[in-house]
Amino acid sequence: MKECNxxxxxxxxxSFAVNCGGKQTxxxxxxxxxxxxxxxxxxxxxxxxxxxxxWVVSHVGSDPFRESPRFVNTSQVILGTDMPELYQTARTxxxxxxxxxxxxxxxxxxxxxxxxEIVIEKPGKRLFNIDIQDRNIKTDxxxxxxxxxxxxxxxxxxxxxxxxxxxxxHLHWNGRGTCCIPYEGxxxxxxxxxxxxxxxxxxxxxxxxxxxxxxSNDDKRRGVVAGIAALCIAAAVISSSVVYLWWKWxxxxxxxxx
Length: 258
Description:
The chain is α+β, with helices and mostly antiparallel strands. It has one domain: Jelly Rolls (Sandwich), CATH 2.60.120.430. The protein has helices spanning 2-8, 84-87, 143-147, 217-254, and strands spanning 15-20, 25-27, 33-38, 45-49, 55-60, 71-73, 89-92, 96-102, 107-116, 126-132, 135-141, 153-162, 166-177, 190-191, 193-197. It has a 6-stranded mixed sheet. Strands 4-5-8-13-10-11 form a 6-stranded antiparallel sheet. Strand 4 and strand 5 (55-60) form a beta hairpin. The chain crosses the membrane at residues 224-247.
């Protein structure tokens, strides 16, 4: 994977932002920052490659036999932030979420993760783990506790070095916390937005979308890298889905009235 990335990608990006579970959102003060749209329904398990081929989102874990939300939102105002729209929507999963940012230039980056608990109120408790570049940075992360209350914003900032053009963010349920408040299946990771930028340039925004035209060599290289990442994710999703469906089938056979 590392060798392929170096071979096929030369003109890399240096910033990224996505509005998890929400529409594209642009902030213009002090400099333009565009948070990409992230409203593709991934079903019980699946992945989506962004049309600009800059990032991939993957999810596994929803119950295939029972409808459960992959996006959540609130119309209530989120106080304590100058970006309230970002915290009014979120992508969630009963098991795991992955975000891959593809084509980053080698170097140090600041990763910002945006959170607000907009589903589970007390006495419920959402707990999950957060890994960046396969390194655990938070265990039993409790959004409400960190933010100081329900529907309040909180951010995590983490410094990371990218050496192979791909940044991996993994949020996953660890089996702890409540499961059924305010409804059955209300657990697992939840994230409102993600932003990545060079530490010396915090106001850099992702490059604007180019007019539709014949793909350049850079587009082709980025497409190859995104394709490789997507294939890897697809394999993981398929494997996880098979195991999960098998487990559900066994549970239904053993406990048909459960």
